[in-house]
Amino acid sequence: MLPIRLQIVASFAIGALAVSSSLVAQSVFATQVAGSNTNGGAGGGIFNPANALGSPANGNSVHSLGLGGDLTLGFAVPITNGPGADFLVGENPFRLAGSWWQSFAEVMFVEVSSDGQQFARFPARYFGPALQPGAFGTVPVGSYAYLAGQNPVLATSPTVDAQDVVDAGGDAFDLGDLAGHPLVQSGALNLAAITQVRLVDVVSGSSLDSLGTPIFDSGSGSADVDAVTVIHQQGLVASGAPRVQLSIQVDGTMTLRIEDPDGWQDLAPASLRAALFGIPVDFAGLVGGFQLQSQDALGFTLVQPVPLPPELLFTLSVSLKDTAGNRSGQSRARPTS
Question: In the chain, which residues fall in CATH 2.60.40?
């Protein structure tokens, strides 16, 4: 049997700020500040909500939430639930020299609304150590799921695809993960028409995740919002777009499904991207440890069946386009419970 890399290659070969008109034109980014509360500037930082509009900068052009504070952003075109991740949130985390698997991260809860009144929060999880990292302390990448501020932003120049889950960096969110939320079930939240995203600062050691576990992050300040980038906009998702589905189990085993409703021949293999710990890596090399579980007319299912050490935290991201340039991507953290 051919190695998995050759199998895949062979198969593929077969608050109201005035918004300038220029920002509105860049409609894949947030274009409006709908609300801001910095709790009096608690924790210090840069307090300028307009810095969170437009494309990522990954520097000092950020807005600090303030300890326990929040920021609500609006969009010229609503976000919709497409195939895979639907938007990216960028903070300004960084890695210390020699610690590529660690991140200086100040994280935030992410909430969405379709009416500007009722917000659904993504089910935040914390898997890291139950202690304060200390001044300029880092946390393992993979400590957080459904929280923003873990992975550094990479899309800081026009040459980088700001909507690609792998190339752009930041933290990806899939609206489909809210399908079971009570607001969605009752019809109060429309995942096909998200008009606002609210970011809420996590207070290290005090804020709790969705299961009641205290969340710890780096530093004594608050999260700093860089940008929110939309991947899937209402009315602009092609019915034939590809789909990347990634799941990671508690024991570290993984399943990756890559498919296209128009058939796997419509996939663009050169567009395959992957990132481990938020760092882009060679896709073929990454899946060298995977096995081809199944192949059908639409795509492929790959599995990594080997359990990993329980203390190993990590994130994995995969992105892909079809021959028409339609995209899909997914990013997951390895859960520990």
Answer: 4-14+238-333
CA angle 331, 336, 337 (to 5 degrees): 110
Give the H/E segment covering residue 25. Answer: helix 21-25
d(CA 132, CA 138): 10
291-295: strand order across its sheet: 243-248, 254-259, 299-304, 291-295
The DSSP bridge partners found for residue 125 are 145
Q: Is 84 left (phi over 0), alpha (psi -120 to 50) or beta?
A: left
Q: DSSP string covering 66-100, please? A: -TT-EEEEEEEEEE---SB--EEEE---B--TT-T
Neighbours of 285 (CB within 10 A): 10
Rounded CA separation 272/275 (Å): 11
Going by C-alpha positions, the residue among 239, 240, 247, 262 that lies closest to residue 301 is 247
253-284 confidence digits (pLDDT tens): 999 999 999 999 999 999 999 999 999 999 99
67 φ/ψ angles, rounded to the nearest 5 degrees:
-55, 115
Q: Taking a C-beta distance cutoff of 8 angstroms, is the pair 112, 75 a contact?
A: no
pTM reported for the whole predicted model:
0.91
For 79-116, what is each residue's pLDDT tens digit? 999 999 999 999 999 887 778 889 999 999 999 999 99
CATH of 4-14+238-333, one of 3.30.420, 3.30.70, 2.60.40, 2.40.30: 2.60.40
Helices and strands counted in the chain (H then E): 4, 22
